[in-house]
Every structure is written in C-alpha cells, then in structure tokens.
Amino acid sequence: MEGTFGSLKEKLNENNEVFFTGIGGQGIVTGSNLFLEGLSDTKWHLTGVYSPGAERRGKPISCFIGLYNDPKKTKSYEMLTKKDFVIIFDPASVGKEQLLNGLREDGIVLFNTPKSPEELVKANGKLEYFNVATVDASGIFSEVFTEAFGRAPTFEEIRPNVPVIAAFFNITGLASLETFIKVVTNKWGGRIGDINKQAAIAAYNKALVMKSSKRGMEPMTTKTSTTPVDELTEIALCFPQEGIGGLTGLWALIQPKIKEDLCNNCGTCFIYCPDNCIIWTKGKEGVPKIDLRYCKGCGICAEECKQDAIEMVEVKR
Ligand code: SF4
Ligand code: SF4
Description:
- The protein has helices spanning 28-38, 117-123, 137-149, 161-172, 177-187, 190-206, 268-272, 300-304, and strands spanning 15-23, 45-50, 60-68, 83-88, 103-112, 131-135, 208-210, 254-258, 278-279, 289-290, 310-314.
- It has 317 residues and is an alpha/beta fold.
C-alpha cells in the first residue's frame, strides 16, 4: 500500500470542531463518548452533540464534538458551525462528497477504508484541498476478531469505532495510545476489551496520511434531487432530497410494492408516508408511484392501505 506514516499535529487550532459520521450499528455514539473520555485529562474544554432520531442499524448517525481552549465556546450558539476534522466511519461512504461540506480548507478527513490516501485523492481531485488520512479499521477489527473467536465476524459484529479513533489520536497527537487503551479497557472487560485494545494498537500504528497540496478551492456543495418536478404530485408541500447521509432508500431492508389489481388510487398511502416519497395526484388514472430512492421502508403506507394493496418486499442488493 502507498501512503505516508506521519502526523498532522500542526493542524490543530485553538478551537477545533470534529464531525463523526457513520451508520447505526458502527458504534458512532459509543465512539464519540470514548473519544471525549480519551481527552478528559487534556487541556481542552469539551462538548458533544449527537444527531437526533432513533438509533437503528443502517440509519446515518452524526456527532459533533468541540475541543476548545476558550471555555466560553462550549456554551456559545456559534459552536459547531464549521468542521476542522471529519471522521468517516462507514467504508461505503468514501465517495460521498457531501459529507465534507463545511470542512475547512486544509482540514483533516479520516476515512475507514483499505485504500491509501493517494488512491482516494487520485479518484477525487477535490480531496487535494484537504489533509487526507486513511485506516482500514473494519479490516483490522475483523482480523483481531477472527483470531480471538476462530471465525470471521458477521457484518453486524464489525465495530470500527475504536480503531478509527485510535488512528485519529495518532495522526493528530490529541491523546496518547496508553490513555485511550485505558478508556477502552475501562469500558469493556474480557475478550471484547482485548479485541478492541488489539484493534486500537494496530490502527494507531497503521494510519496513513497525505498532506493537502492545494489552496483556494470552490466551496463543496450538496447535490440536490434530480426528480423532474412534473413527475411529482401537485399537492405535496415538499419533496425529499438527498441529505448528508445519502439517499434514505439505501437504509431500507424492505420496501413497498403496490398491487395494481387491488389499489383504488385513494391516496391514503400518499397522505401517511412520512417521507413524501409516494407520488400521487388526485383524480389521475392509475396507481401511485413510489420513489424508492427515498423510501426507508417503514411500512406505514402498507399498514394504512385499506385495500391491502401494498406488500412490503425484501430489498435485494
Ligand atoms: S392507500 Fe392503498 S389503495 Fe389507496 S392509493 Fe395507496 S396503495 Fe392504492
Ligand atoms: S414504506 Fe414508509 S417511507 Fe416507504 S413509501 Fe411507505 S410510508 Fe413512505
């Protein structure tokens, strides 16, 4: 693998804001608590804010953490308005540019990926404006787990949070490995504690960094929905758009399918869909269409349909 083992310690400011992002099940909230505990003996005044909503497997989760020299900043409404560091826990999110919105030029982005920073920058030239770091946290966790249990972990069992944070502490010098190991082993005993400790040590030593080489970039912008307006219902007040977590349809394990022979085009499903992803126009012939790009598979439409015309079917990927 290409890459430079090194440090980005000089990139720390007086006040630093960190954005964690991943999906439910990857231990993002637990990771942000461990991150804060790892810094509790340092000079920093700390604050953390978690994204609201139910935490469930597959749902995007974000945490903002502030590390300030000035204690007043932790109480300021201005806090967490910019990003100095972005930590992307989900290997599937490597190509999602919108997660970097608000990252200051010359800030640091750390990806959980087996790829080197050079490979990522080659694939996306915009990354050259940031300091890019990578660590194969999921791979490291899986390796240590396999050694401990004599079998590979399932997708659900892979927890990249501890190795990602260990790598981040190394490249920024924010906390020592010894301190972080203490935090981890206080949290978990037994084999789980050992696995996380081994994963932290390996990741701490394997993080790769590539310093930014450019200045003066255009601000990154979030992509908006490409649904043509004339395809959408005339009475919906708002339409779904892709947010920082990507298309919500990607979270779905099941999604609705309308049985055309049973549907009477009453529009009840349209009224109840919390995500406005059912496209229906009063009086129009046919059956509603469902924009599966935004359907997260809650099943409310199927529950509310009086005709039993909606079947929830497994999503095959
Ligand atoms: S609620 Fe059922 S019957 Fe009514 S439009 Fe939706 S699918 Fe058709
Ligand atoms: S499953 Fe939920 S999100 Fe999807 S169309 Fe039905 S109500 Fe909307």
